Amino acid sequence: MRDKAVLLKFLKNNADELRRAGGVFDVNETVRLMPYALCLMPKSDGRWLITVPMANKLPLARKVKFNKELIAAMHGMEFFGSGKTMEATFTGTRLEQVVAALTEITQLNALPSLRPLWERAGGNPAPKAVKTFADRPTSNDTKAKQGGKETADNGALFSRSADQKVTPISPDAVERTVGRIVKRLRLQGIPVNIVATEADLPTEIQPQAGKEGARGEVNAVHFGVSIYIVADRMESIAQVEEAVFNESAHFGGRFLFVKDFGKAYQNLWLKLGGAKSMKAMAKKAGFNMDAYFKTADDLLSKGLITSVQRASY
Known about the structure:
Blueprint: H1 4-13, H2 15-21, E1 24-25, E2 32-35, E3 47-53, H3 59-65, H4 68-73, E4 85-91, H5 95-105, H6 115-120, E5 131-133, E6 156-160, H7 171-184, E7 192-195, H8 206-211, E8 218-223, E9 226-230, H9 237-257, H10 261-271, H11 274-285, H12 290-301, H13 307-311
Parallel strand pairs: 7-9
Antiparallel strand pairs: 1-2, 2-3, 3-4, 5-7, 6-8, 8-9
Helix pairs in contact: 7-9
């Protein structure tokens, strides 16, 4: 939501919808802008609200709470609160100034379900995807939870196989299976996208795939607040199910452990006996994880990841 004029129109025209959806927020949901209303009021009363965490551990929270331009845009209103969050309210007449100040600090996002309202306000359509299954993105508290094969804290986690030539099942079968698994596992909090080919994955992912030697081998990816399933790499219903389960586990691990993700996985890695034991367990279970071990070993030997990051690979 980079176009400030469209964003302002989107906010003004959809106050009640935004209130029900939780407003707009940065990619990690650290900061949230939304219409204000008392809990017993069915509609917004024209005021707006910005919420931030009480703790100052996150740089973005500090930037927002102590930003002089933002406070001035809210006509001098500062952040107050108790518990885990602080908030500042301001009148709708100050919305344009507040949006201008806030978007200088961070880019804002909204739920995928509000995309039609964004487009109606003049925003761009969603990036091309064969199918997306999602109701809303899930809370992320730090960049470390943005996905990542730990070569970069905000990178991508790939599910891959070394077999370059596959005989895929039909796109319809992939779509039906993903829809069924998302519903059964109640994954509505995670956007699960189906793309036709690896080339249709987000452009931000492509350099990392090349760096890790994964080009032509990517079956699925956890990146940012989304999961991507590559349809023409799916050879069976079971493989689709495995891909969704695997990427959801990556997402869940980062959501559960947040900044301690790497440490938690290293502890698990050590308890399982390290690389040697992991390879033996994979072989016993019938999993071909050679590509993962080879890539992790190569990245470690080149100094591109640490031993802690290698454990979470």
